[in-house]
# Entry
Amino acid sequence: GASGFAPSPQPGMAEAAGEAGLGPAAGREGAELAAVIGATVPTGFEQTAAEEVQEKLGSASRISRDRGKIYFEVPARSLPEVHRLRSVDNLFVVVQEFKDYQFKENKEDALKDLEDLVKKLSWSDPLKVWELNNSLKKKKTKRKKHNLQSPASREKLSDGGEEGGADQNNTNDQEDCAQTPVAVEATGGQDTENPQGVTSRNGVEEEEDNEQSGVKAEVQASSESGTKAGDDQTGEGEAKVLRFRVTCNRAGDKHSFTSNEAARDFGGAVQEHFQWKADMTNFDVEVLLNIHNNEVVVGIALTEESLHRRNITHFGPTTLRSTLAYGMLRLCDPQPTDIIVDPMCGTGAIPIEGAAEWPHCYHIAGDNNPQAVKRAANNICSLLRKNESKDSSTALGVPLDIIQWDICNLPLRTGSVDIVVTDMPFGKRIGSKKKNWDLYPACLMEMGRICTPGTGRAVLLTQDKKCFAKALSRVGHIWRRAQTVWVNVGGLHAAVYLLRRTWERAEERRSFW
Amino acid sequence: KLGHPSELPPEPVPDYEGDEEFLRRVHHVLLEVEVLEGSLQCPDSGRRFPISKGVPNMLLTEDEA
# Structure
């Protein structure tokens, strides 16, 4: 069935739904609405995310073979808690999952099957979850980036967010990603075979987009809230025509079609079934069609891709995603009163995440670069200001300090730190004039010195796995490799190493401190 | 030497874990007082490390390293 849940009757659910401004939220016959949620997480941290879900929502997760995704079931009223999960990047509600979908070998047949699928799916409960999710979003005064930019840059935004993966892979057709074109009716004759199809299609559509967005701009100007077209009419549900797009991610070498084609045809069937309007950039509903070999998942997005996907523009090109920072911290299992140090903190992504989620630990951040220290200090101030606004009296302090220091000469006592967690730099010089090749062992030695023998641990992210492995072999007497997580950082293959500090005490080599 | 009226003794008192008044004062100094401008002084060498805008600079000079 659409979702394999066992609904339990919940009195009062209808009233709660009424408050949210919706119709009855009951799934069927008075049962409570449940949602099967799919979450994208940093690849390699699926288990970590599953643990967080168990801890905070009490639900068990299934980890998909399609990497970077987990699935779990929760009552729809838990959506606010779901959004507060720290290890997930994006969320969607599952319409239906097929564990072993048999694709027809012939392209036309395979695509026809996908089209026919649309009317067979149970959309109504997932759409209720989507509506509920919308009402949650409206409560926050979130600035919707899409609407505040010109059509040209809006294209660019979704280009950067969505098509990045497609550019790399279209040539061998292993994996690609595409969305339904704006004007579904007009695509009948369009050439979709060429590898540049994705980018050229966007080029073609820009003109059509401009026409539509001209009209939309007027609608937005007149609406007070300034949110997406149609948002202000959510209460009237039925009368309004929804705008949608289909995003298809396809991976596998046995499919006879591309993601472009699947998105196009699936989208066409969706349009016909619901009589919605296809719109690439200003959509209300984003339908997801994820195909990974024989695993097919149809879903509806609950978060906006462009907001979460690549945080590279927020602080700087090397800032770590907070979901990855969270995953790294969880890996070292911080205990209350643990001292956690990030000796190369950059703009402070890790210690800030640490102080927010593990306030019973003490976090110390440091870097030798004055710009980084300044930015990190600013980010900490923002965190403090956030705490201030909630409480009218004195602001709660944050157990986090920042210091400007040299990774090779840390002003910390030997054996005084429980956890070292950091993003190791790659291709950058640090403080002293040594090269990375010498730097890594020096860092590991100094981190080994400050870390408590036996119970201490380190979680280190690096892209230079070769250099790291070499360095680690030189410090085997103080660090033991406990676990390796293969991750993807901005398209590059990196690794997170969990190391355990041996019982051997470090020599007091530094007489200065 | 914070110049702050916290009245901490120079050494932790024996059985400080049970002394709530002492613990409160330590907590206050550690987590609720922020030095914005000033310096940290090494008790052995006397070398001062400046603190500016709440951030201490503990980089060593070429000679010291």
Remarks:
- The two ends of chain B are 27 Å apart (CA to CA).
- Helices of chain B lie at 20-32.
- Residues 16-56 of chain B form one domain.
- Chain B has one helix and three strands.
